[in-house]
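Translate structure to sequence.
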């Protein structure tokens, strides 16, 4: 039995464009073509497609999947074994934490007097970071932070000083500090929007971390307003005063949802997900919805925003958005309408 690409797409839940993309990169080539040139897939092709989709669920990139399928000794079981190894590492980290807690309990039960405050704070921060970052991510963040620890402390103190003195976010002093903050956060996260999103969520959600680090909700709100002001100044080259006022009044959703959306888009880019894949299509629609809430639905306003993105690098500084991501999401937006392809 041979299936045309459209029928295979309907029965598998995979889009036609995705199947075309798999063919173009050599990941899944149809075994035959009809006299009219239509792709035809046989049982072996469908079995290979099953393997590809199963591996995608294990967060492997298309390049990794292709390499695994090209190896004669590689089977789906070997992929699952790799995932088991990763899970084992997570279990080992949890076991290590449990052992640390048992040692602490043992000290207390024998009457020893460890520095309880420091010990518990360390444990709290360890488990807190485990909720947001993998072991490798924590290691990379520690390495990044090691080179800037003193600068971080000074910057946080300076920010609190501005707040205590009532310095306006529009002031040159606050704008300079906001620019330094953006640059340091970018260096700390390596420009990775996924780390930025989770770092922001951690600092906003963990009161004990705010107390220890000095990065309080008040400080984050002050810096957010300062950064927004600097970007609105750049947008003023493209938008009218009335349009800028709308952006100022409607940017709460833009600020709140943008980091996680950018992180999700970056993840799909690294997975090499086709732009017409349902996951990417949903991300493209989220992008449009947020932009609509920010600048309105007028196509001219969208063109102005696109021009600002293209011509003002400072607007995108610290956001994780680059030209490749913009090109990817714009292409995805063009495929939002249903496609009819052979």
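Result:
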């Amino acid at each position: 039995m041979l299936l045309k690409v459209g029928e295979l797409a309907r029965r598998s839940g995979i889009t036609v464009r995705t199947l075309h993309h798999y063919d173009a990169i050599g990941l899944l080539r149809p075994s035959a073509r009809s006299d009219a040139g239509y792709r035809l897939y046989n049982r072996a092709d469908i079995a290979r497609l099953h393997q590809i989709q199963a591996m995608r669920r294990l967060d492997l990139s298309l390049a990794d999947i292709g390499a695994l399928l090209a190896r004669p000794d590689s089977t789906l079981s070997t992929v699952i074994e790799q995932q088991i190894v990763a899970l084992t590492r997570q279990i080992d980290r949890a076991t290590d934490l449990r052992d640390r807690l048992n040692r602490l309990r043992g000290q207390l039960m024998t009457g020893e007097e460890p520095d309880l405050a420091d010990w518990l704070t360390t444990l709290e921060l360890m488990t807190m970071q485990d909720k947001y970052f993998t072991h490798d991510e924590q290691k990379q963040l520690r390495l990044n932070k090691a080179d800037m620890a003193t600068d971080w402390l000074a910057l946080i103190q300076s920010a609190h000083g501005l707040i205590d003195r009532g310095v306006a976010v529009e002031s040159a002093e606050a704008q300079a500090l906001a620019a330094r903050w953006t640059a340091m956060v970018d260096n700390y996260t390596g420009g990775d929007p996924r780390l930025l999103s989770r770092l922001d969520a951690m600092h906003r959600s963990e009161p004990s971390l705010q107390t220890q680090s000095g990065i309080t909700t008040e400080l984050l709100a002050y810096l957010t307003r300062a950064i927004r002001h600097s970007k609105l100044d750049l947008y003023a080259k493209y938008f009218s005063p009335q349009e800028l006022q709308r952006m100022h009044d409607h940017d709460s959703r833009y600020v709140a949802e943008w980091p996680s959306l950018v992180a999700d888009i970056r993840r799909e880019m690294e997975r090499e997900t086709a732009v017409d894949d349902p996951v990417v299509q949903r991300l493209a629609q989220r992008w449009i919805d947020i932009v609509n809430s920010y600048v309105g639905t007028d196509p001219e306003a969208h063109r102005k925003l696109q021009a600002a993105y293209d011509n003002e690098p400072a607007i995108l500084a610290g956001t994780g958005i680059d030209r490749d991501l913009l090109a990817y999401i714009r292409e995805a937006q063009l495929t939002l309408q249903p496609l009819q392809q052979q």
